[in-house]
Amino acid sequence: MASAASSTAPAITPGIKQGVAPLRAGHGTSFFLRRLHSLTGIIPVGAFLFEHILISNATAISGPEAYARQVSFLANLPLVFFLELFGIWLPIAYHALYGFYIWYRGDGNVVEYPWSGNWMYTAQRWTGGIAFIYIVWHTWTMRFTGVDLHMYPAASFGKVQAEVFQPGLFLFYVVGLVAASWHFAYGIWLFCAKWGIVPGERARKRFLVVCICFFFLLTGVGLASLATFRSRPLQPIDSSAPAMTLVLPAKVQPVEGR
Ligand code: HEM
Questions:
Q1: In the 8-state DSSP scheme, what is residue 61?
Q2: Does residue 163 lie in a domain region?
Q3: Residue 3 forms part of a structural domain
Q4: What is the pLDDT of residues 154-169, one digit of tens each?
């Protein structure tokens, strides 16, 4: 695998400001595929990650019932299978596979990233790789094996607990969370630099601070959710649990005695 493309990096001309190269037609690999890779990182993959950490998983902080209601809400969205297929799985698969291809090719180079140590370039690739391993495992265990949470949302809290109470898996959750959060947060910065949304060196430096704050927000909320799973009493993972009593909004719950 090509390393951080140091071998292809042109010499840095003194006095020329470094930055992230904009996406240009005919620059490197196919312009369209490159743009699509960049765009899918934000929409829908990034938007999904935002929802998953800051909305859905954050409801776990309010307890098992709130979490089950959220899982049930998502599971009952119209055409949920097609939403998952076209809104999550295929875009992630494309972004990931093309991301590995970019990594392998060593596209981009030292000059195109702003720090001389160039660790941001390397971190973007490794965090993508780690996130990929985590996402494949997490999707397999949560969505495709064990209790079907779309059928039995009440089992969701307990199913996550069964994993995060194991020290090795808990560590894996933390590493996956930090990697995906960094990759997305720094990815927003990269995206805005490449598409010309944040032009100018000063604006980019300030925007980088915003993106780093966003990384801490994602990681902090994710860790708070994980801490809640570990701090609550173990919930049953019972596929026969009467989950649907949990999904009714309070105002339509049957009133006792009527
Ligand atoms: C958690 C899911 C993921 C999200 C939310 C995400 C998001 C992003 C975003 C927003 C960007 C910046 C777009 C740009 O460079 O213009 C990006 C870049 C990148 N992503 Fe991902 N990504 C994810 C997973 C992955 C995976 C699994 C890989 C596989 C290695 C990967 C590889 C890359 C690479 C190599 C870049 C940098 C491209 C460049 O420097 O030109 N990503 N990602």
A1: G
A2: yes
A3: no
A4: 999 999 999 999 999 9
